[in-house]
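Researcher: Sequence recovery benchmark, item below. Answer with residues only.
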């Protein structure tokens, strides 16, 4: 069983990807900033979906997500980068050490 992380899960494209992957023998990890914005479990009948909360504008949030995935033995075999980051606020960049 492959573990697949999908970022940017808050719209129809990600729902279509999740619907397709749910027909396979894959474990789907939904990476999004707030899982209450998007809940495919209401539309897709599978128990092989989990959420991993992550704000891609924050390196500390990304680090936390990776730590949690490691702790739960859910490091992905594949990543589908569906998220878009327009810009990173300067406060986040400085706090994350990107200055």
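Model:
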């Amino acid at each position: 069983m492959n573990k697949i992380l999908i970022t940017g899960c808050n719209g129809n494209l990600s729902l279509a990807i999740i619907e397709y992957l749910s027909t396979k023998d894959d474990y789907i990890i939904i990476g999004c900033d707030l899982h209450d914005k998007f809940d495919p479990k209401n539309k897709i009948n599978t128990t092989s979906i989990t959420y991993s909360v992550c704000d891609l504008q924050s390196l500390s949030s990304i680090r936390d997500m990776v730590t949690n995935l490691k702790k739960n033995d859910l490091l992905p075999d594949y990543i589908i980068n569906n998220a878009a980051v327009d810009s990173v606020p300067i406060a986040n960049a400085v706090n994350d050490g990107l200055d």
